[in-house]
Amino acid sequence: MISRRSTLMLLSGSLAAPQVALAATPREITWDDLIPLGVPYSEIIGQGEIDEINDTWNPIFDENATKLNKALDGAIIKMPGFIIPFDVSAKGVTEFMLVPYTGACIHTPPPPANQLVMVDTKTPWPSDDLWDPVWVIGQMRTQLQSTDLGQTGYAITAEKMEIYEW
What we know:
This protein is mainly β.
């Protein structure tokens, strides 16, 4: 098991992608849907904290960073993104942050909280597919929480995941 303080770790081996049936038809959303209508994308307004040991920068965002789209709370959704793993085992990843672009939170400032999603899945996602963009399908919750890599505004319990096809 890898702690939250870890960033990317790739394991060797090949596992089949998890597949689980959903009870409801998911609503396909984009990252723009996470920002409430009429709210502009958050801006960095302060220098923030620099952690030289872990090579991270936690900027200070304006008040728009934590404004969440409450209409998504409880919705069954399908959204694309990239994986920043937190809980990795030989079977794969079961807890991760879903981010809108490759490298978010690693060597760049993290996006605002309303652009970061914590994901838990009972069926591990194969660790050899960590660099591929994915579709995450499941129930979304609006939930601010802090991690070592940034504050997240949403959480999803993933019922199904798939490789995102461009």
